[in-house]
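Please check the following for our workbook:

***
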Amino acid sequence: MSQADERAPSAPSTVLLLARSAITAPPLKEMERLRGALATRHGVEEALFAFSEQGSPSLRHALDKLIAAGCGRLVILPMLIPAEPNFQAWLTRTLTRWRSRDERPWPTVEVAALLPNEASLVSLLDAALAAGRTELSLGAAKASPEGSLVPAQKRRVLVCMGGPCNVAGAEVIWGHFRNEQDRLSLRTAGDGCMSAKTSCLGPCNLAPVVQVWPEGTYYGGVDEAAVDRIIAEHILGGRPVEEQAYEPTGKKQFLRMCEV
């Protein structure tokens, strides 16, 4: 580590706690608690949190508000355990894509060390083991008395989470789709739509890849604008978005750079 890396920040920073997802009250309250604790630290001008996948505020929404407010220096503190080696790669590609389409001045963006790379994480594990424990009551397995409905939704959206798609920013694409699915009530709108992450869908060089059923349509190079069109035109309108779709031709295909 260089001497420059070891020095304290020369100017106050806005710090963004970045977690994967949270859709229920308890984890949101915990994120708010951590945000409040971080806000009191020396050198922290403002602290906030966001989610790269499902949850509000999304990374895109939080970043948009900071840019609008004239944030000059942003430090992203990843709360990703276990850490993914390609985290910085997909974050860089995603932010580069967003910045290329935004004419406003952007802050300087820095990323703090991933937690598992810090020796202090071991002491946190030791503390957890030493803390009070709750013994689980393991009785006989019981069937649910309520039963469960088989989903009637006719459409399925698969978002690839294979290696190349993950590096290309599939995590934020998944988050954007899930947030829009909730906002637009896609489970009950039209034919109804369910969604899921999946392992490799096959056409890795077309990353990020999304597939929509029952047609089985492959979409490549998907970004937020493409997701919005897929929802409006395909999921709700029943018409595949041809400009973003890739048919199985039996030959290798390359990513088309098209405006969506």
